Prior knowledge:
This protein has 154 residues and is mainly alpha-helical. The chain contains six helices and no strands. Helix 3 runs antiparallel to helix 4 (70-83).
Amino acid sequence: MEHILEETVSADDLKKFEQRYHEELQQGQVSSGAQFEYAWCLVRSRYPADIRKGIILLEDLFQNRDEENKRDYLYYLAIGNAKIKEYQPALKYVRALLQVEPGNRQAQDLENIIAKRLEKDGMVGMAVVGGAALALGGLVGLGIAMAGRHALKK
Protein backbone atom coordinates (compact mmCIF):
# COMPACT_ATOMS: atom_id res chain seq x y z
CA MET A 1 0.00 0.00 0.00
CA GLU A 2 2.90 2.41 0.65
CA HIS A 3 3.54 2.43 -3.08
CA ILE A 4 0.52 4.73 -3.46
CA LEU A 5 2.62 7.59 -2.07
CA GLU A 6 5.52 6.74 -4.37
CA GLU A 7 3.47 6.31 -7.54
CA THR A 8 4.10 8.90 -10.24
CA VAL A 9 2.12 9.86 -13.31
CA SER A 10 3.52 9.42 -16.80
CA ALA A 11 4.36 12.59 -18.69
CA ASP A 12 1.97 11.52 -21.45
CA ASP A 13 -0.98 11.16 -19.08
CA LEU A 14 -0.24 14.46 -17.40
CA LYS A 15 -0.03 16.22 -20.75
CA LYS A 16 -3.24 14.61 -22.02
CA PHE A 17 -5.33 15.54 -18.97
CA GLU A 18 -3.77 18.99 -18.69
CA GLN A 19 -4.68 19.67 -22.31
CA ARG A 20 -8.28 18.55 -21.76
CA TYR A 21 -8.54 20.71 -18.63
CA HIS A 22 -7.20 23.81 -20.41
CA GLU A 23 -9.44 23.27 -23.44
CA GLU A 24 -12.50 23.21 -21.18
CA LEU A 25 -11.17 26.19 -19.24
CA GLN A 26 -10.89 28.20 -22.46
CA GLN A 27 -14.49 27.29 -23.31
CA GLY A 28 -15.51 28.80 -19.98
CA GLN A 29 -16.73 25.69 -18.15
CA VAL A 30 -14.50 22.95 -16.73
CA SER A 31 -16.33 19.71 -15.97
CA SER A 32 -15.80 18.00 -12.64
CA GLY A 33 -14.42 15.00 -14.51
CA ALA A 34 -11.76 16.98 -16.37
CA GLN A 35 -10.75 18.87 -13.25
CA PHE A 36 -10.56 15.69 -11.18
CA GLU A 37 -8.51 13.78 -13.77
CA TYR A 38 -6.05 16.66 -14.09
CA ALA A 39 -5.82 17.05 -10.30
CA TRP A 40 -5.38 13.28 -9.93
CA CYS A 41 -2.44 13.42 -12.35
CA LEU A 42 -0.92 16.45 -10.61
CA VAL A 43 -1.13 14.79 -7.20
CA ARG A 44 0.79 11.83 -8.62
CA SER A 45 3.55 14.07 -10.01
CA ARG A 46 7.08 13.92 -8.68
CA TYR A 47 7.19 17.73 -8.41
CA PRO A 48 5.89 19.40 -5.23
CA ALA A 49 4.60 22.43 -7.19
CA ASP A 50 2.43 20.13 -9.33
CA ILE A 51 1.19 18.31 -6.25
CA ARG A 52 0.23 21.60 -4.58
CA LYS A 53 -1.64 22.66 -7.74
CA GLY A 54 -3.48 19.31 -7.72
CA ILE A 55 -4.42 19.82 -4.06
CA ILE A 56 -5.89 23.25 -4.87
CA LEU A 57 -7.98 21.76 -7.69
CA LEU A 58 -9.16 18.92 -5.45
CA GLU A 59 -10.07 21.32 -2.63
CA ASP A 60 -12.12 23.32 -5.10
CA LEU A 61 -13.91 20.17 -6.25
CA PHE A 62 -14.55 19.10 -2.66
CA GLN A 63 -15.99 22.44 -1.61
CA ASN A 64 -17.87 23.46 -4.74
CA ARG A 65 -18.89 20.43 -6.77
CA ASP A 66 -20.99 17.29 -6.72
CA GLU A 67 -21.46 15.32 -3.53
CA GLU A 68 -21.11 11.86 -5.05
CA ASN A 69 -17.33 12.04 -5.62
CA LYS A 70 -16.32 13.59 -2.31
CA ARG A 71 -14.86 10.27 -1.19
CA ASP A 72 -12.37 10.35 -4.08
CA TYR A 73 -11.54 13.99 -3.45
CA LEU A 74 -10.79 13.31 0.23
CA TYR A 75 -8.69 10.26 -0.60
CA TYR A 76 -6.50 12.08 -3.11
CA LEU A 77 -6.28 15.17 -0.91
CA ALA A 78 -4.83 12.90 1.78
CA ILE A 79 -2.38 11.37 -0.71
CA GLY A 80 -1.29 14.73 -2.11
CA ASN A 81 -0.68 16.24 1.30
CA ALA A 82 1.21 13.16 2.47
CA LYS A 83 3.43 13.26 -0.61
CA ILE A 84 4.55 16.81 0.22
CA LYS A 85 4.95 15.84 3.89
CA GLU A 86 1.98 17.88 5.07
CA TYR A 87 0.93 15.07 7.37
CA GLN A 88 -1.56 16.89 9.61
CA PRO A 89 -3.83 17.94 6.70
CA ALA A 90 -3.36 14.48 5.17
CA LEU A 91 -4.61 12.87 8.38
CA LYS A 92 -7.50 15.35 8.53
CA TYR A 93 -8.66 14.35 5.05
CA VAL A 94 -8.27 10.60 5.49
CA ARG A 95 -10.02 10.74 8.86
CA ALA A 96 -12.88 12.72 7.32
CA LEU A 97 -13.22 9.94 4.78
CA LEU A 98 -13.20 7.34 7.56
CA GLN A 99 -15.99 9.25 9.34
CA VAL A 100 -18.20 8.59 6.32
CA GLU A 101 -16.84 5.13 5.49
CA PRO A 102 -15.38 3.63 8.69
CA GLY A 103 -14.85 0.24 7.04
CA ASN A 104 -12.91 1.61 4.05
CA ARG A 105 -9.79 -0.58 4.06
CA GLN A 106 -7.88 1.63 1.62
CA ALA A 107 -8.44 4.69 3.80
CA GLN A 108 -7.50 2.74 6.96
CA ASP A 109 -4.24 1.63 5.35
CA LEU A 110 -3.52 5.16 4.16
CA GLU A 111 -4.16 6.54 7.64
CA ASN A 112 -1.65 4.06 9.10
CA ILE A 113 0.99 4.95 6.51
CA ILE A 114 0.54 8.68 7.10
CA ALA A 115 0.68 8.24 10.89
CA LYS A 116 3.90 6.20 10.59
CA ARG A 117 5.49 8.81 8.33
CA LEU A 118 4.43 11.60 10.67
CA GLU A 119 6.01 9.76 13.58
CA LYS A 120 9.17 8.94 11.61
CA ASP A 121 9.61 12.47 10.27
CA GLY A 122 8.82 13.84 13.73
CA MET A 123 11.59 11.71 15.19
CA VAL A 124 13.99 12.79 12.46
CA GLY A 125 13.01 16.41 13.08
CA MET A 126 13.61 16.04 16.81
CA ALA A 127 17.00 14.43 16.13
CA VAL A 128 17.97 17.34 13.87
CA VAL A 129 16.82 19.87 16.47
CA GLY A 130 18.63 17.92 19.18
CA GLY A 131 21.78 17.75 17.09
CA ALA A 132 21.59 21.46 16.35
CA ALA A 133 21.15 22.20 20.06
CA LEU A 134 24.18 20.07 20.88
CA ALA A 135 26.22 21.77 18.18
CA LEU A 136 25.14 25.21 19.41
CA GLY A 137 25.92 24.22 22.98
CA GLY A 138 29.35 23.03 21.87
CA LEU A 139 30.01 26.30 20.05
CA VAL A 140 28.90 28.33 23.06
CA GLY A 141 31.14 26.21 25.29
CA LEU A 142 34.04 26.65 22.89
CA GLY A 143 33.43 30.39 22.77
CA ILE A 144 33.42 30.60 26.56
CA ALA A 145 36.59 28.54 26.77
CA MET A 146 38.28 30.70 24.13
CA ALA A 147 37.16 33.88 25.93
CA GLY A 148 38.48 32.51 29.21
CA ARG A 149 41.79 31.58 27.60
CA HIS A 150 42.02 35.01 25.99
CA ALA A 151 41.36 36.69 29.37
CA LEU A 152 44.12 34.57 31.01
CA LYS A 153 46.70 35.68 28.43
CA LYS A 154 46.20 39.35 29.34
